[in-house]
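Researcher: Last one for today. Full complex below.
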Amino acid sequence: MSTPLLVTAAPTITENPPQIDYWLLSPMLVVFGAAVIGVLVEAFVPAARRRAVQLGLALAAVAAAFVLSILIVGALPADGPGETLAFGSVAVDRVSVFLQGSVLVLGFVSLLLIAENRRGESAFAAQAAAVPGSEEEREHVMAGSQHTEVYPLVLFALLGMQLFPAANDFLTMFVALEVMSLPLYLLCGLARRRRLFSQEAAVKYFLLGAFSSAFFLFGIAMVYGYAGSVNFAEVAAAVREGGGPLFADGGGRPLLLLGIGLIAVGLLFKVGAVPFHNWKPDVYQGAPTPITALMASCTLVAAFGALLRVFYVPFGGSAADWAPMLWVVAILTMVLAAVVAVTQRDIKRLLAYSSVVHAGFVLTAVVAASPEGLAGAMFYLAAYGFTTIGAFAVVTLVRTHENGPEAGELSQWAGLGRTSPLLAGALALFLLAFAGIPLTSGFIGKFAVFEAAMAAGAAPLVVVGVLSSAVTAFFYVRIIVLMFFADPAETGPTVVRAGLFTGSAIAIGVAATFLLGVYPTPVLDHLLPQPGTEQGESLVATAEGSAG
Amino acid sequence: MELYAPIFVLAAIGAAFVVVSMVVGSIAGPKRYNRAKLQAYECGIEPTPQPAGGGRFTIKYYLTAMLFIVFDIEIIFLYPWAVHFDELGVFGLIAMVLFLVNVSIAYAYEWRRGGLEWE
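Model: Here's the assembly. Have a good evening.
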């Protein structure tokens, strides 16, 4: 008996109205409903009360959606992978529900960071439409204006991130990609301080993101030409049989290869793998730090979820074609980003390059194309998400002076371990987890992905990965040494007191990094297929007749 | 490959048309500039005054354009539904009403936040 993990099905077209299982869609519907109500709150609730209402609504919706996904995964049949719904456009299986759950938890923690208000000042511009430095901006700052639209925008982005890894056809996946990306483009430009920088980041992200969406869409057109369908089950069948209905003689391979390549460009851009990583440092640095945390955790989970599904389900039959390409991308990512990261002088840029390197590590698990690879990648993504939110939460607290902008320059962080040992200690734990030191979640994650790659015969990748880890460990440890063993700089930073929200975000990050490092078994057991059952050739189960 | 030949021919004709008409226009066309010709084209109305040095320009037109797109998309989805109203039945009706409600929420937001006030 095989234990397939991913479900796929082709739609059955009937004349009857579709029976949609709204229960299985409920985590997404709750988040969408809350986002829509959030827009209404913006329109009808007085400005003074908006923030409290929006925050409560957003946190409640994300928490409720998470509880619903837990209930759904409990109710999924134990022997099968799951179901597809809404005309075979959404797949609900263990993988997609786990990824959705991760997005929701990480989104909840990011929301805490987004909600932080220090003396009435959030991380977001008082009036984003006012020219930076203008009289109008000053008036809005004095009046204490706030952009509470941030909360519905984050909810819409989270909705896209939930749908992205669960899509069962290319068009749904593209819509999810846009729903996820459009709010993020906007959120990137809303920073309160260094506003021109933030706006530049937003424009860069938007232009490059639109460009990559075009690649993705063009790839879909190619695959549609090859398979005659955008549904994953039908594309997978066409790939297995060497051609869709149009290419019974097997002559459509160029179309398929073009399609795989173009779709890979779109997805690899979203995960930020070399050579499509150039947006990451600029955008991560310019965006408001809570939004950077959201992107570095939730977007990465969602984008990798989609990447895994696309390469394992529709293109699963042509792994021999895409695996070499992903080998090259993974090696480039791990080597180039690690080397460039060493030269970084800004903490947010450094964390951005570090995120690129981590994308490379996860790619080694994608190349493995095995249940272990899938489980390793998912564990890695969830664990890395908590750690990275924690790290960015620490960044929000270290300012150049009280009420000043964040102190990005690493030289300013010298001696931080002496002035505020708790904060520096938390950051040190996160950095050690990034480096993959035992007793942190980073070690378990790296072990899981490298073990899967090794088992799949990708030993050279693992060697490159370990070497790259050593290089990255160098600059993580350099920061720790700088914080604890260097004398505080004359113009040292001011560490502002962590509010309740930021404090909880850091505490959750520390707890998750430590717990997943010491006792990862429950999570790993849940992700891996049950021992004792034989591993099937395919990761994919085809659900028959469950399309509704 | 023969199937693609007309596409390539069409692409070549299209490219040639662009190149030829721009080159011919720049060589043969008379150039009599006046104030109106050098102004930005805004659908035939008086151009919005712009501050010197490439400053900001008003967002009013964009709001109107975005509102237009909202209703434009709405009507695109309403047409096929109206044509097959009887076959789509109650399910189609509920789906359409939900869609209209969601679209109207964007409209309500713009209205309440002053997006429709033309000074």
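The first helix of chain B runs from residue 5 to 28. Chain B touches chain A through 16 residues (CB under 8 Å).
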